[in-house]
Amino acid sequence: MNPKMIWSNLAVSDLERTTKFYTELGFKCNNTRSSNELTSFVVGENDFVMHFFLKDILKTNMKIEIADSQTANGVMFTLSAQSVDQVNKWEKEVEKAGGKIISKPEEFGNGYYGFVFADPDGHKFNVFYMEGF
Predict the structure, then answer these.
(1) Ordered domains of the chain (ranges, CATH)
(2) Kind and range of the H or E element at 117?
(3) Fewer CB near the terminus (10 Å): N or C of the chain?
């Protein structure tokens, strides 16, 4: 298997809230894909695409049950930070934008520093700085 591209499709309950949250975090809107059923962003140096569909739309189109992201976690995204200071700055930005801090920034292991947060729909993200990476 050699796919041309990979992206994520996540379920949300409120497109306006989701768009506001990720815009405040500085994610770049993917205007070519946004509609009344989804909002879309590109993230990182390689423009990873993240689609956020209304939960009922995603459930109908995928023909599967969608897990409650407030209580379960199907995938955890990691956002790579460039420094400890950037990790700490991002924690404040996440809180200001309405995200929930799951674990405060802390050092773990040798040269590792980060925290975990959830977006308003409960999707989890690990913000991570690794010395020398």
Answers:
(1) 1-65 (3.10.180.10), 76-133 (3.10.180.10)
(2) strand 112-118
(3) N
Question: What gap in Å lies between CA 87 and CA 92, rounded to an integer?
Answer: 9
Q: Is the dihedral of CA 75, 79, 90, 112 positive or negative?
A: positive
φ, ψ of residue 11 in degrees (nearest 5): -90, 135
Give the model's confidence band at 71: pLDDT under 50 very low, under 70 low, under 90 confident, else very high.
confident
Positive/negative CA dihedral, 56, 36, 51, 6:
positive
Alpha-carbon Rg for the chain in angstroms: 15
Q: What is the pTM of this model?
A: 0.85
